[in-house]
Write a structure and sequence with these properties.
The chain has a single domain, classed as Multidrug-efflux Transporter Regulator, Chain: A, Domain 2 (Orthogonal Bundle), CATH 1.10.1660. Helix 1 packs across helix 2. Helix content is about 45%, strand content about 10%. The protein contains four helices and three strands. About 10% of the residues are buried. It has a three-stranded antiparallel β-sheet with strand order 1-3-2. With about 100 residues, it is mainly α.
């Protein structure tokens, strides 16, 4: 069955558990569950357990960095340009 598990180029498993995500984000598992329940962090349910794709978590983290960057620009300037607040890269669509 191990052959059926898809791995990334780095050899890591494709899917993470809630506990794995909590460790990566350095938060409590309940915090991750709240993100999943709200839909803020996309995931799938397998039975009663959540599974989060590693790539989805990485995109989520990148989006948080981008939001923080735009927020910091907004707070620094009374006259920031619209281009400063546009995403640095086009948003990714879930497939």
């Amino acid at each position: 069955m191990g052959d059926m598990v898809r791995h990334s180029a780095a050899g890591a498993a494709r899917f993470l558990t809630v506990a794995d995500c909590a460790e990566v984000l350095n938060v409590e598992a309940d915090d991750v569950t709240a993100l999943l329940d709200s839909g803020e962090l996309p995931a799938i349910r397998v039975g009663v357990q959540w599974r989060i794709e590693r790539d989805v978590l990485e995109r989520y983290i990148a989006e948080l960095y981008e939001q923080q960057r735009r927020h910091a620009l907004w707070n620094q300037s009374d006259f920031a340009s619209i281009a400063d607040f546009a995403p640095a890269t086009p948003p990714h669509r879930a497939r």
